[in-house]
Every structure is written in C-alpha cells, then in structure tokens.
What does this fold into?
Amino acid sequence: MPHLTMIEALRDAMDVMLARDPQVILFGEDVGYFGGVFRCTSGLQKKYGEERVFDTPINESAIVGLGIGMAAQGMKPCVEIQFADYVFPAYDQITQEAARIRHRSNEQFSCPLVIRMPTGGGIFGGQTHSQSPEALFTHVAGLKVVQPATPYDAKGLLIASIECPDPVIFLEPKRLYNGPFNGDHKAPAQSWKTHALGDVPEGHYAIPLGKARIHREGEAVTILTYGTMVFVAEAAVEKAGIDAEIIDLRSLLPLDLEAIEASVRKTGRCIVLHEATKTSGLAGEIIACVQEACFYHLEAPIQRVTGWDAPYPHALEWDYFPGQDRVCRALEAVMEV
Amino acid sequence: MSSHTKLSFAHPPARPGETPDFSALEIPAAGALPVPRLDIAAQDCVEHANSLIRVMDDRGEAVGPWADYLSDMEPEALREGLRHMMTSRIIDMRMMNAQRQGKMSFYIQSVGEEAIACGFQRCLKPGDMNFPTYRQQGLLIAGGYPLEKLIGQFYSNAYDPLQGRQLPTLHSARDYGYFTVSGNLGTQYVHAVGWAMANALTGKDNIAIGWIGDGSTASNDFHTALLSASSYWPPVILNVVNNQWAISTYTGVARGHGRTYAARALGYGIPALRIDGNDYLAVLAVTRWATERVRAGHGAILIEWYTYRVGAHSSSDDPSAYRPKDEAKAWPLGDPIERLKQHLILSDEWSEARHVQAEAEILAEVIEVQKRVEAAGTMIDPKPIPGASIFKGVYADMPEHIRRQRQEMGV
Ligand SMILES: Cc1ncc(C[n+]2csc(CCOP(=O)(O)OP(=O)(O)O)c2C)c(N)n1
It folds into this structure.
C-alpha cells in the first residue's frame, strides 16, 4: 500500500472520480494548468483535459454559483476555494442557494457540489490565510461539512463527498497537508510518507459521511476533536499520561451523535478541542449535544479548548493555536473532579 | 470658502403630485434597426444596445426588417400569445384580490410586462432552462403549466408542488424549464451560466436563460454572471427586465451614469440588444434571433427589455408613495395586450367582440381553478400541509439529528 501525503491522497481521490464518472469536473483559481497553489490538482488538467479541469476568474461567487448551475443540471463539480478565508464572497451562494435548492424545490432540483478549501493555521498565514470557519457552515441546514485528519480519510471522505447527492463543504487542514502535527512547532516536521496513517489504498473506496473515527481508545476521558487538533490531542494525552479516548469527528455536519454519546457514556468525562475561535464555535454545539444526551453519565464539567477570540495573528501563531499544554491543563482539570 | 466635489443622486423625472414626464425617452421609429448577423460581436452592437428595437408602429402595423424576420408567423400563434398575456393579467387581478381578502400572504404581479415572459417562452424548446425571478410567471403560463399547480403554489396547500416551502410566486417547475426561484436577488444569474456551461460540457443542445430586474443588475452576481459568460462563452441568454423601478428606487440609481443596461454588457465583450418590451412582436422576433444565435454556438448575449412596472412592486407595496399616480397611463410605449390586440384587429385576425369573449372565457376558467384550489385551504380556512414536510428534502437522506428533531415535533 503506498504512503501518500494528504495532498497526494486528495489528488488521488479526484483522479479516481474523474476517471470513474464523466460528470465530475474540477475548477477554481489556479486549479487547471498550475494544479492549485497547494498543488492538490497537479497534473489533472493534463490527464483529463481542459473541459474537466480548468481555471476560473478570481470570483468565489462565480466558482460556487457556476457549480450550483452545473450540479442542478446533473454534473458533479468539485470546486476549490483557494483558502477558506476567501469563501465569504460565495457565502450567499452556499448558504442561501446550494444548501436549499433541494428543499425549496421539493426535490425537483438538487445540488451535488463539493466545495474544497484549505482551512486552519500553522503555516504563518496571518489573519486571512489561517481561519477555521466551520461553525459558519455547520449552522446551515442542507450542507454537509467534513474535515479529514489523515491521508486515508482525506481520500475516502473526498470520494464520498463527490458521490454525495447534497452540497459538501470539504475543509482541508493545511497544516496536515504534508504530515501530522504534534502541537509543538519546534519539533521536526513528520511526513505522512513515514507515518502509518499515510497508508492509502489504491483505487476507489469511500468513508461514509456522518461517521466519526476513534483515533485512540481510552477509558478515562473523551476528547472530541477534528483536523489538526487530533494530533495535538494525541501528543497531550501521551505527555499527561492519561488514558483518554480521542474521537476524530471527521464529519462536523451531521455529527456522529451515536459515537460521541457512546464514548462519553463510557468515560464519563469530556473535552472538546478545536482550533477555531471559542465564542459560538462548534465546541459549544457539541457540548450542548453531550449535555442533552449524557448528563447523568458525566463526572465532571465539560471542558473546551479552542483558539482565542481574536483574529489569527501572523507572528504569534503558536500563542493562538491550542497547543499540547492547554490540552494538558484541561485534562488535569477534568480528571480532578 | 473651500470648494469641494459634489455627489450625484439619481432622481426620477416626476414624484407624487407631479405630472408624469417621459419626455427624456428616446423612442426610435419601429423598424429602424436592422437584424444583425447571428455571430455579431459586442463592438458591432453599439447601436442595438443603445437604441430600442421596435416592430409594431403606433397603429399596430408590423414594419421593418424584424417584422420580415417573423413573416412566417401564423396568426393563430399570435392569438395564442394574446391569450397567454390575458391569462397572466387575469390571474394577477384575481390573486391580488385574494391577497386583499386575506386568503394568501403575498403576491407579485407582472401587469404591463406580460409580453416579455409570455413571448419569450414561445421560442424555447423542451429541456431549455429559465432561471427566473418572481416576475416571470408568464413563462409558466405560456408554457402550458397546469393552472392548479400555479395557483396552488400561492395558497401553500395540497395543490402546491412545493409543499408550502416557498413564498407565493417563487415557483419551481423543472419539467417546464423553470428553475427554483430564490428570494435572494441576482443569485440565479450565475446559475444560468453554470447550467449553460454544463449543457455545453455534456453535449446537450439546450440553452439556459437568466432573468434579472434592472435594480438587481447592481448585485455582485449580475457582474459575476457576465464575467463568467464572457470567460467561457456558453449557450446562455441573459435578460434584463428594465421596468424602471426597484421597489421605490428609481432605475437611475442602479444604472448610474451608464446609458443603458444593454450597453453595460458590451464592456464584457458580450453583444447586447435593447428592445421595446411592450411590443409582443419585437419580443418574438428578438427572442427567435437570440435563441438561434446561442444554439448555433455563437456564445452569450444580453437583452434589455425596456418596459414599465404598471402595478405595485408586490402586494406589500404602495407605489403612489413614490411615483405619480397616473404615471403608468402616461408611459409612451403602451400596453402590451392592447398593442397586440390592435395589430391583430388591423390584419382582420381579431375583433373587439372576440376579445371580450376571450376575456370572459379566461376569467371563467381561472375562477373555476381558483375555487377548486381554494377548497384545499387558504389562510382564512387553513388546511395545513403536515409539519413533517419541513424535514423532507433537507438532504437526500435524513441524518440522525434531523430524525430526532422530527420525533420531537411529534410527527
Ligand atoms: C439580495 C436581496 N436584497 C434585497 C432584496 C429585497 N428586494 C426584493 S425585490 C427588490 C427590488 C428588485 O428590483 P428589480 O431588480 O428592478 O426587479 P423588479 O422587482 O422591478 O422586477 C428588493 C430590493 C432581496 N430580495 N434580495
């Protein structure tokens, strides 16, 4: 089985789907000839031609709006927004149009559109290359929101997203494009190519949307997280020496309520960890779900560890990022009770 | 005293209490403009984009090269067109009344603009897709859409194909080439271009048609659509219905210092024509030409339909608060129904008596359908659609959290 980076795995997923289904097309800024600024679509235009993989003007509303028209007609566009930070000119098209076309037309039209975008910090991108806007999409009925943490999941989830009959916001944690991250910026970067989670089978496989993955089994406390923070959690758990269960949610809308509830019922303790800003972030929603379903199983107040309520600062990324230390403190707090 | 620059604020020629004034309108003679080559380029379209294509003269006679372009048109087809426009107007009248009676929440009429949608539809083929606004109901009426579905949609009752999910007049009728209408202005213009691109990419011979109001040409997505159509040159017709008003805002605010909306397309390299939208024959001729152009692969085109919104913007609007009360009567391009009627009478294909009779027949038909539909529930006598419908079609398959919410609703 080949070891791939997440970028290679994503490219492989698009390659598989372009080959399998003539309705699949890719477009976005710099996606065609150049292969995207992160090179996710590298070589695909050459292989499939300009009618399947092409460049667009710098107009996010066009990228999504054209995709909606094509998807309504029966094609399966998989479009790229260069950074999640730039999706907002298309926010209206995504939230008011793509998300609603099936429902408002009573299923006469649908919108099988995938909108890929790199998300999160860790690459010194400053305020407009580092945001994690997932909560702005998980609030919208009719969308699905996905974020992989491993190359294996990236490929399987992207294939499932392209096959999904509804619009999917596909968030790619750019800090994980080339390898996992342990929350310590001074530690040498690991590559997926030397990492077991870089195993990616060839050909077609799909990971169902709406299903979480147990990243590490444990009995003492449940850490609910996704994306880059899965690895921060892993490092913190090792450092703290606590037998925590780490759940990689993978699908942020819909959430895998059953997996979340089963784990919290088992451990009786819960931490929610994400990189996005705290106030009105997804952690609040997840905690509310846990409270509703697991209140009598809880031994301690649920903790939330998130990015600060401030714009992502360029030179202070490591202060912004919820690193291992903050997770360790939360682990201590939740185990104290 | 320091000097400073001044802003320019657009004003309509007359406000309430003043005399309507259309003297600034330049109205060229019918038949003055030639029929361009199908592959005309934007730079050769300057006159067509800045003037006004008209076919019927003031008497109702069809004159000039665009009339010749329609010479194979059977009188029966024109009588049918007249019937569509009359049906549209009668439905508007009945539904505005029903709204006033409290039977439905809201209504949007297209009085005065009937020729555009009703005429345009006649040149389309099965599989072509319109991306309309709330004011192109005429596309459905002229396309033979069952009246009980059309009217059922207003009442959000069992006859409503959309199960009460959309505001009245925001129809969706895939089989009739009518994309699901959004309440957000402008968005559909981009979808039309995307649909047209998909047609080209998948080898379908159909075309897409975008519709937008003059006020909404100011939206991002108007420019987004023009840019996209200019980049990829797909088979799309982009219509601008210039009815002079965006609720209470005069058209000059959106037009700015541009001369016409059609001319705006030329900067994108998209050829454009400007048409008397109250002239049913001009609508037919230009639509026929435009659909031929686009089907032949010569790329996108924009059409500005010059008209006047006679009625209120919607049932919630009172235009006497912002424009002279009798402005519509002073509108110099006439009423589209009257004009086609005169044309047919002039050529002995119609008469006042037949017109009166047709009106009575259509009214009777509309009343019959309306009664049948109202029996299935109105806002006064509600027979609600089951609430569980809310959860249907949010996704192709219902996720767990929505299933739980449906249970919580108790349905
Ligand atoms: C994005 C958006 N902004 C505002 C509105 C409220 N609104 C509804 S109709 C309308 C005026 C539209 O005027 P125009 O485009 O000229 O079309 P017309 O109603 O004259 O046919 C406005 C402002 C809306 N529906 N969507």
Summary: Chain A touches chain B through 46 residues (CB under 8 Å). Residues 6-20 of chain A form the longest helix (15 residues). DSSP finds twelve helices and twelve strands in chain A.
